[in-house]
Amino acid sequence: MTTIASTTKTLPYRKQGEIDYDSLDFDPNEPVRKPDAMEQNPALMKLHALLHAHLTDFGKRPDIFLDVNTIICYDPANLNIRVSPDIYIATGVEAAAIRPRKIYLPWEVGKPPDWVIEIASSSTGRADTGRKRGIYAEIGVPEYWRFDPTGGDYHGAEMAGERLVNGEYRPIELTNEPDGVLKGYSDVLGLSLCWDDGDPLLYDPVTDLYLEDWQDERAARQVAEEGWQDERAARQAAEEGWQDERAARQAAEAARQAAEAEVRRLREQLRRQGP
Q: Which end of the chain has fewer CB atoms at under 10 Å, N or C?
């Protein structure tokens, strides 16, 4: 399975003709709006920010496509047959080539998304555990996750992860940690997704640390950048000090040599004058 860390080869985007957007019964330029978005948004926005910061390096990874509430069409014969995940990720793809198409077309991208998550709400909970689950298995999404901030009112569980095996989803093991956090490891992300009293977290088992949100991450990078700049300024100051010291030594040496030359001149003058 392709993971974020192991992505080394990018699939070429194979555009297959123009899209007749007028024939669509939806507007791809408009985000999918849900009646109870306020229930979903706190968890959705935080998780997206974590993924954006740590997996795409703030959008600098050209081989990772991350998006929210946009359309995946999965029938080449009818683009109105579609699904809209809350958050989805595709690795090893030409991210810049996908966005101008306005919809995700697996046959052009070269693959379905690798990772999908649905955040529960009163209007979406049943579809997340039923219809959407079947669609994601049908189109071949390797990992499908569900996150219920309420603790299970809409999904029946706080969190669930499933891995596609022979066309069927099999549950990913979840653990209740001593700190009270529910964790499940994602092979695609190379991280553990966590449910912490309704709050989504990402945990790196290699560093044994929870990842910071994008604001903390950016602030940490800024502090590191400022520290590097301070170090560079200190090195420049030291270099300038060394150059000043070398110039002073050269001036002292020149003065010494001038003094010695003057002494030799005076001695020669005295010698010529005699006793």
A: C
DSSP SS3 for 148: coil
Q: What is the reported pTM? A: 0.77
- pLDDT, tens digit, for every residue of 71-87? 999 999 999 999 999 99
Cα–Cα distance measured from residue 7 to residue 36, given in angstroms and rounded to the nearest whole number: 36
**Taking 90 as the threshold, does the pLDDT of residue 207 lie above it?**
yes
How far apart, in whole angstroms, are the C-alpha atoms of residue 249 and residue 246?
5
**According to the model, what pLDDT value does residue 222 have?**
63
Q: What are phi and psi of 273, to 5 degrees?
A: -75, -20
Query: CA 102, CA 100: separation in Å to the nearest integer?
Result: 5
Buried b (16+ CB within 10 A) or exposed e, 247-268: eeeeeeeeeeeeeeeeeeeeee
- Which residues lie closer than 8 Å to 122 by C-beta, 6 or more apart? 36, 39, 154
| Chain-centre distance for alpha carbon 195 | 20
Are 4 and 188 contacting, i.e. CB atoms less than 8 angstroms apart? yes
CA distance 144 to 188: 10
Residues 2, 264: Cα–Cα separation, whole Å: 82
pLDDT of residue 223: 59
